[in-house]
Amino acid sequence: MHSSFVIDPDLHTLSATVCPRDLRLERLRMTTPEFIERVRRPRILRATGDVPLAFEEDALPMASMADGDCIGYDVDLGPPREGFWIAPGEAHVIAAPDVWLLAPEPRPEGTLLTASFTLPPGVRAAVPWPDDPRGHRVPETAFTLRGAAAFGKLEQATARVGGAELDLVSLGSGFGERAPLVSKWMQKSASALTELHDGLPVPRVMALLLPVSGSDVGFGMALRGGGPTVMIMVGSSVTPASLDTDWTAVHELFHLSAPRFHPRDAWLSEGLATYYTDILMARAGMLDERSAWDDLRDGFSRGSRRGTGRTLRQESIDMHETYAYQRVYWAGAALSLLADVELRKRGVEGGLDGPMRELARCCARSEEAWSAEKFAAFVDQKTGQSVVQSLFEHYLDRADFPDTAEILAALGVKGAGREMTLVADAPRASVRSAMMAPRAGGAKP
C-alpha cells in the first residue's frame, strides 16, 4: 500500500491519497480520534469521479471501493495549537502523524506500507521513518505509538554517534551562529549513553529541536511512533554555559535505550531516566562527581517534600492530574539508587548497569509495554539476586518517600550545595566513586 501526501505552500493543509493496490482493506481508522474534526473531504478517488465518504465513528469505510480506487482526504494543519501534536510556527508546522496518517485495517503481518511527500519549494519534511525507493517505509509503530513529524523550513544535519545515526532537525530558522553549539551538545549527550551501553541501542534517532525565546533548554520528550525521536525546546540565544551541564537531551535519549513501560509505571521509567541522567553525565565529564551527587541528593529532598499523600503507585497513575511529577520522578530515582547500591554490595559488578545493557539489547526496540513487575523479575534473574522485586514491593504501596539518608551517608555524600563534601573514608566511598567513573572499554562515537 502506498500513501502520498501533498503540503500546500502555506502549510495549512495536507492532502492525502491512499492507494491499497492488492491489499483488501475494510477501513482507514484515526489513530487518535480527538483529531477527527481536522480531516476534511474524505472521498473515494475513482476515474469516473470522486465519491464522498463519511466517517463511521472514527473510521472511513472502504467496502464500496473497487479495484484501482484510492482514498483521498485533506487535513487542516492550521491553528489552534494543540500542544506538540499540531503546533504552527513562523515557517514550519509540527504535525504528529496521529493527525494525518490514518491506519489501514486489517494489516496482515509483513504488509509493506510506503509513503511519499510532494512539497513546495523550500519546504522539507522530517519524519523518523526509514528511507525507501518510493520515499519512506512506514513502520507498524507509526499506527500504534505516538510519533512526531514537521514540515516547512528546516535545518537538517546527520551525525554518527555510538554506531548510530543522529538526525538533527532544527525548525524554522534554526539557531544561526549557535547551531554548532547545539549540534555539539546533542552529540555529546548521545555519546553519554555509551557510558552505559555498547553504542546507542537504536540505529537511528531523529532529534526535533524547537527554537524558543530565551537562553536555556526547556521541555523535552521521547517518542517511539514510526521510529525513535526526541523533541526538545532550546533557547534561540542559548549559551555554552547553559548547554554544558543541561540534562534534557541525556534524559530523553535514555528513555529510548530502555523498553516502553506501562503508563501506570511512570515512576519506574522516569525514575530510571532521572537517576541515570546524573550518573551518565558524570561518567561522560558533563558533570563533576560532586555536582552529580549534589543534584541527586537535592532531587531526593525535593521529591520527599512534594506529592499529595498518595502511595507511589497511585501517585504515578494520577500525576498528570495532580502534577506530582517531582514526587514520582525522584521516588523512582531513589529506588534506582537503592537497587544499584544493594546489587553492588552483594558483589554484582556494575550493579544495575549490566541488566540495563541487556535490557537495551533485547527490548529497546520492542513494541511491548513492560510492567514494573516484569522489569524487577528481569533484573533479579539476570543478577541472581532477590533485590529489585522486594524493594519495589516494599515501597510501591506506601506514601512515604524511599529513605536514601542511610545509603548516602554510607557512600560518603555529606551536606548539600556548597557545603557538600564527598567523604574519602566513608564505608562505601569506593562504590560511590565507581558509580560515577567513566566506563572502561565503552563504545565511543
Short overview:
This protein is of the alpha+beta class and 445 residues long.
Q: Per the principal axes of the C-alpha atoms, what is the gross shape?
A: elongated
Assign a percent range to the helix content: 25-40%
Strand content: 15-25%
Distance between the termini: 37 Å
- Rounded to the nearest angstrom, the radius of gyration is 24 Å
Give the biggest beta sheet.
Answer: 8 strands, mixed
Number of strands: 24
Task: Count the DSSP helices.
Answer: 14
Spatial order of strands in the largest sheet: 5-4-7-2-1-11-14-13
Structural class: alpha+beta
Low-pLDDT windows of residues: none
The average pLDDT is 93
Task: Write a structural description.
Helix 5 (248-256) crosses helix 6 (266-283), helix 6 (266-283) runs antiparallel to helix 7 (289-305) and helix 10 crosses helix 11. The chain has 445 residues and is an alpha+beta fold. The chain has helices spanning 97-100, 141-144, 179-192, 240-244, 248-256, 266-283, 289-305, 312-322, 325-345, 353-363, 372-383, 388-395, 405-411, 429-436, and strands spanning 2-7, 13-19, 27-29, 39-45, 51-52, 59-61, 70-76, 86-88, 92-95, 103-105, 114-118, 124-126, 131-132, 135-137, 150-152, 154-161, 164-171, 204-212, 217-223, 229-235, 260-261, 369-370, 413-414, 421-422. It has 14 helices and 24 strands. It has an eight-stranded mixed β-sheet, with no helix packed on it. Strands 16-17-18-20-19 form a five-stranded mixed β-sheet. Strands 8-9-15-12 form a four-stranded antiparallel β-sheet. The chain is elongated, with a radius of gyration of 24 Å. The longest helix has 21 residues, at 325-345.
